[in-house]
Amino acid sequence: MENQPTATTKIFIDRVSKQFNIGFKKNDNALARALSWLSGKESHKLLPVLKDISLTASDGENIGLIGRNGSGKSTLLRLIAGIYQIDAGSLVTKGEIIYLNGFGFGLRDRLTMRENIYLVGLLMGASRKEIDDRFQEIVEFSELGNFVDTKVYQFSSGMLSRLRFSITFHCLKHKKADIILLDEVFSAGGDLAFQNKALLKMEDFFRSGATVILVSHNLNLIERYCHRAILLEKGKILHDGEPPAVIKTYQDLINKTVNVSL
Amino acid sequence: MLIAEEKWFKFKNIFRISASLAKANFALRMEGSYLGIFWYLLNPLALFFIILFIKKSAFSNVHIAYYPVYLLMGITSLNFFRQTISNSIQAIASNVDYIKSMNNVAPEVLVVSVVFQAVFSHVFEFILIAGFVIYWQLPLIGLLIYPFLFALFVLSVLGIAFIFATIGVYVNDLDNLWNIFAQLLFLATPIYFLVTPGSAVYLANLFNPLFYFLEISRSLVIYSTIPPLWMILTMVIFSGGFFIIGLTVFNKYKKKFAELV
């Protein structure tokens, strides 16, 4: 493990730990909160999620992050994205970050597809002019050209998935991000043909020259696109190395757990 | 210089995204129909007619010049204040996706958009006030000053909205407390009655930003008189003060929001 970031380091994480106060939600009404504050006995049930994590990611490196549910993958991405704050250690990132967690946000059911494209596009950081320029591309890629002025509550779930993916992808692909964090984004929805089309588009992220960290349960994707893989288990890095070797460790871990439970 | 430019860019971005979000939410509320505006105005109008009726029947001896305009300005201002704060309480907690799934939406956007949405709605209330002013043949000059005064009031409401949005993340039943407080505010603020200087109600109102806005705007719009300088200065100090305190509180706690919602 390197101890200092170099000129090409985009992400530098040194002994980072994170825990959540899961007792917080027990006392979330005003009276309980006031009483616990007055008594000085605030609920502090802490759940450690990441323990002593250290890693560096260099310019242009594609890293796959794998592990079982609850192993801390999403928390780690959110820490890098600056959405969560670290409790201990140090975390340094260089450049602009795109963080994408699925494609399920922002659409308003009672607005038309056109209105939604502008709203979500703006939320994704694109200017009105940029959305104007990409509008046709978004509509064409989603294959929903006949429904531009239809309110999206009338769309099927497949149509919604296509629209979400198309807006998100086209609004982000022009951004010159230095770090791209993708959390389970490869289930774009839609039919198989659209999923393949979306996957091909997503390859643009891996070829963009940015540092990409991909969280996915699809191990084929990790093997195909990543230069390196990291296995997280119970908030710790269990294996950091070549994707085939790390995937093998992960599969052994899963098999061991299944055998024990059987 | 770079920091100032960065801050200006961030401010512009927050303003732009908030306005778009508010516009979308406003359109949703109106559902593309003018009937939506009617429904929005129905609440303050109903209250207006009820109070007007009570005043005429039970308190006809109390004289307040141009009472319908006086009352309408009181009700619409309270409506703006009450709705903004009420919506700001859930502004963060009800937009978990924006907080947790994206790193490019500043949490400030969610609160500012709530205020913008209320400002859009207030435009229709302002048109109603303007209609009353014209009907009662009052000088129009006050109406021209009203938007500037209102902008100052919006600043203080924004500051208060930041505080309530922050507390709303920590306390899930704050809206119940706010509803009770809003009732008190309705009864204590001179919405439908005159307040006598020196009285207990008057003294209590000296801490109420809504009171200053109402007194000054009524002086200008209805009575065409310049309000006392101390009152204008207090309103300016209150607006700046509430805004700075609200923003400071919000900035202090916003980094924790994603972990709490």
Tell me about this structure.
The complex is a heterodimer of chains A (262) and B (261). Chain A is an alpha/beta fold and 262 residues long. Chain A has helices spanning 30-39, 73-81, 113-123, 128-142, 157-172, 192-206, 219-225, 243-261; strands at 9-21, 46-58, 62-67, 88-93, 97-101, 179-183, 211-215, 228-233, 236-241. Chain A folds into 2 domains: 9-96 and 216-261, P-loop containing nucleotide triphosphate hydrolases (Rossmann fold, 3-Layer(aba) Sandwich), CATH 3.40.50; 103-175, Orthogonal Bundle (Helicase, Ruva Protein, domain 3), CATH 1.10.8. Chain A is built from 8 helices and 9 strands. In chain A, the strands form 2 sheets. In chain A, strands 5-6-7-3-8-9 form a 6-stranded mixed beta sheet, sandwiched between helices. In chain A, α3 packs across α4 (128-142) and α3 packs across α5. Chain B has 261 residues and is mainly α. Chain B has one domain (2-260). Chain B contains 11 helices and no strands. Chain B has helices spanning 2-30, 34-58, 67-89, 96-100, 107-135, 141-170, 174-188, 200-205, 209-221, 229-253, 257-260. Classes of the chains: A alpha/beta (262), B mainly alpha (261). Chains A and B meet through β5 and α3 of A and α1, α4, α7 and α11 of B.
